[in-house]
């Protein structure tokens, strides 16, 4: 599944400015589609989202972007089979440096025994939390709208690639619309239903006239 910049920011808690800067400086680039000029969009994968959130958490602990970038470079060099180290390795930070949780836990315990206050970033938990957040925003929602005094069931679908929502009315095949917000989408589907009903009425009138 692809996530546009707006959705990526919402899920990871980073700002759009940070997202663009991290892309332009090659810290975390979108895996699915890069912005290559007017009309193109950044599309991120789920693993990209995990990396973005881990980077935000490291930064919140006082680790500079320069140190995060150096850590990523070191991890890629020493773990060549790992393409997304921030999303695949358990990391520990004391706000000054970044430690990686080695296969032999004695190595990590040595770091902790020096008395430094460290924060362990459990990437596995971040992944599970991110899955929950993704499930929330991708869940379809059902609403009821009224047009000319009649109720119609409609289904709202998040548009993860372009942002906003698209909405359809199952009772009226082909009747759909879209909007940047839930409210706008609901207003737009009302207009679409009204137009659909008007077209149906016009077709019936012409049918009777020809008969």
Please explain how this structure is put together.
The chain is α+β, with helices and mostly antiparallel strands and 211 residues long. The protein folds into 2 domains: 3-134, Multidrug-efflux Transporter Regulator, Chain: A, Domain 2 (Orthogonal Bundle), CATH 1.10.1660.10; 140-203, Double Stranded RNA Binding Domain (2-Layer Sandwich). It is 49% helix and 18% strand. It contains 8 helices and 9 strands. It has helices at 5-12, 16-24, 46-60, 65-78, 85-88, 105-112, 123-138, 182-210; strands at residues 3-4, 43-44, 91-93, 98-100, 119-121, 141-147, 150-158, 165-168, 176-179. A 4-stranded antiparallel β-sheet has the order 6-7-8-9, covered by helices on one side. The protein is elongated and about 80 Å long.
Which properties best describe this structure?
alpha+beta; 18% strand; 2 domains; 49% helix; Multidrug-efflux Transporter Regulator, Chain: A, Domain 2; 8 helices; Double Stranded RNA Binding Domain; 4-stranded antiparallel β-sheet; 211 residues; elongated; 3-stranded antiparallel β-sheet; single chain
Briefly characterize the structure:
The protein has 211 residues and is an alpha+beta fold.
Write the layout of secondary structure elements.
Layout: E1 3-4, H1 5-12, H2 16-24, E2 43-44, H3 46-60, H4 65-78, H5 85-88, E3 91-93, E4 98-100, H6 105-112, E5 119-121, H7 123-138, E6 141-147, E7 150-158, E8 165-168, E9 176-179, H8 182-210
Helix pairs in contact: 3-7
């Amino acid at each position: 599944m692809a996530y546009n910049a707006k959705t990526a920011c919402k899920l990871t808690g980073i700002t759009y400015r940070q997202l663009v800067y991290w892309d332009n400086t090659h810290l975390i680039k979108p895996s699915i589609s890069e912005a290559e000029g007017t009309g193109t969009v950044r599309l991120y994968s789920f693993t990209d989202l995990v990396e973005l959130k881990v980077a935000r958490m490291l930064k919140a602990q006082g680790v500079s972007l320069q140190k995060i970038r150096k850590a990523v470079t070191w991890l890629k060099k020493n773990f060549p089979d790992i393409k997304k180290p921030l999303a695949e390795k358990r990391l520990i930070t004391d706000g000054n440096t970044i430690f990686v949780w080695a296969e032999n836990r004695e190595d990590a315990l040595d770091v902790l025994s020096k008395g430094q206050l460290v924060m362990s970033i459990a990437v596995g938990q971040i992944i599970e939390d991110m899955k929950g957040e993704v499930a929330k925003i991708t869940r379809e929602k059902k609403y009821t709208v009224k047009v000319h005094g009649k109720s119609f069931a409609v289904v709202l679908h998040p548009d993860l690639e372009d942002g906003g929502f698209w909405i359809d009315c199952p009772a009226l095949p082909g009747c759909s619309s879209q909007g940047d917000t839930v409210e706008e989408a609901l207003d737009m589907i009302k207009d679409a239903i009204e137009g659909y009903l008007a077209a149906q009425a016009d077709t019936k009138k012409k049918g009777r006239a020809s008969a």
